[in-house]
Amino acid sequence: MSASPARRPASAASAGFTLIEVLVVLVLIGVIAGLATLSLGNGAERELRKESDRLAAVLRLARDELLISGGNERALGLRRDSYSVLDLVLLDDASREWRPVQDPQLGPHWLTEGLIELDFEADEQAGRLSGSTTWTPQIRLGNTGEMTPGLIVLTETKGDLKRYIRTDLNGQIEVFSERP
């Protein structure tokens, strides 16, 4: 009889994980956790950035539409909790009124309640927007591209985060994280 070497079952040799495999899994978990943390971020900061970008885009769209159409005078009406592009409507020979445009992009848009407030500064004079329910124009848009110069301030109500949108007479619209 010949002596046969003792054989170990194949499953016993691969019963555990190598150190390299464990380290690779830990690195992958760390990368995924880091990406998840970055994507969540501060909800108020993300909402403030989204609203300021949206408001600047609405202003640009209203300006561009007015340039192309050569239509009536328009304006941006601001309240503490909302904004809308306004059309100047003739009621009769003696009276005119600013009315919000009924459009999904340009029409009235309400900010997230209790999270963001608007303010407007014209000629370096800060002024609190009223809580009124009527629309009054703060930034007028002309059909040749001119615009009322001013600074729209979006503020997080429960913190100190702010975003700024500056408009100038030539129709330039810029968004800033710091006061310009």
Automatic annotation (TrEMBL):
InterPro entries: N_methyl_site (IPR012902), Pilin-like (IPR045584), T2SS_protein-GspH (IPR002416), TypeII_GspH (IPR049875). SUPFAM superfamilies: Pili subunits. Its main location: membrane. The keyword Hydrolase does not apply. The chain crosses the membrane at residues 12-40. It is found in: Cell inner membrane. It comes from the Bacteria. It is a single-pass membrane protein. One of its GO terms (biological process) is protein secretion by the type II secretion system. Keywords: Cell inner membrane, Cell membrane, Membrane, Methylation, Transmembrane, Transmembrane helix. GO terms for cellular component: plasma membrane; type II protein secretion system complex. This is Type II secretion system protein H.
